[in-house]
Amino acid sequence: MNLINLLGKQKFNKFLAVKIITAPLFSIEYNHRIFPNIIRKRASKIDESLQQWALAQADFFSESDWRDIQLKKLKNILVHAGHNVFYWRDLFKKINFNPENFRDFCDLQKIPIITRGEIKKISPKNLLAQNINPDRAVEQFTSSSTGEPLRIFQDENDLFLRRICTYETYRWMNVSVDAKICIFGLESARNLQGLGIHISIIDMESVKFRERVYRNFLAYSPQLLIGTPAHLDRVLYFFQKDGISLKIESIIYVGESMTTNLRRHLSDFFSSKIFSAYGAREVSPLGIDCGNSEQNLHIVPWMNYLEIVEGKIIVTNLRNMVMPFIRYEVGDYGSWRNVNCQCGRQLPIFEVEGRILGNIDFSDGTSYPVNHILAYFAAHYYQEIERMQIEQNGLSNLIFRYKPVRPSAISNIEKMGIEYFNGIWGDKIKVSFEVADYFTSNQNGKIPIFIKN
């Protein structure tokens, strides 16, 4: 009697899916320079198929099933970090935490929460695993929703799984992986690279560029649009202004919160269903919208363990073996929703409190996305800027407010900053620099990155 007959097909599928979700990627053994590219690509393709099949089976997992999976994956990352990462090894010794004895979620509470500010003060060599092939480390920069530039290292295998999560998002929306996709901006989002057509939101400010885009856009007839709310707001503005009409099946917004007003306008104009996907560059996808209710974000338990502590979203990434993030405060606020979702998935639902950036508007009617400015300063001045904030007053004045890591960095930041701003928009708006030791919180207790008066 074989195992399938013994367990029954449904139980066997569940057994196999759990094994696939909890095990290391099959392609890890082949992701090495000694193997030809064709072998590595085939191994990755096998992994891709296995992961997609397993996650489809996981639709039927219970809360208890997911708890068991997360406990196993949490122990795995904790043991790995405790043995191979200097910072976590030293911290665990200091607090008398033995990851080998990890048994329950409450054990995780013994580990203190770590912030971006604290990570910036730690030498990268003390945060990187000593036993992982350096080829798997992918350098990235982020300012997240706090305006604190940070240099991080992602795991190539984690990035592969982020792509699988992108496919999973489509599946939840009933959109085919082979659907025609149009992505506005998001040039640095590696999980979207190679998918559909990509359009520069900055170039959309040019009439001639838009004319070419509209011809290609209408010929391509995309079924899915992806962008940040700020990008999609600008796309909507141009389509309305230029008299372009097109129906789109679905729209996914990422990177920021979307106002109810913009959500309604996008849905009405494009006759679209609107979905959201929430995540952070440091810790991958955190929430997937199933579409059964406005902003019904389900957790992504095969990628992260998510906590909400005193309103703050705290995340332990389960897949980044290169630079483990354990009980990391992402800088966003959220709350659990005690509802049963009509989609039938037994995954907790949460909501995120407004992370809104937007666009800088100029007197000539053009705009420039704030996230592009933050990305530039995060990549070039992560060692010199502790925190930054942009404030626009009317259409003629902009303040770049920042706290330098050290006073000696001020002259370089401002000199190069002036060159940068002059290069991207000339004299469209007057930019002044302001050094700050303190940033005022809003009514929700959060320091906004962009203030628009």
UniProtKB/TrEMBL annotation:
Gene3D superfamilies reported in the protein's UniProt record: N-terminal domain of ligase-like
SUPFAM superfamilies, per database record: Acetyl-CoA synthetase-like (SSF56801)
PANTHER family according to UniProt: CAPSULAR POLYSACCHARIDE BIOSYNTHESIS PROTEIN (PTHR36932:SF1)
Protein name (record): Capsular polysaccharide biosynthesis protein
Natural source organism: Candidatus Azambacteria bacterium GW2011_GWA2_39_10
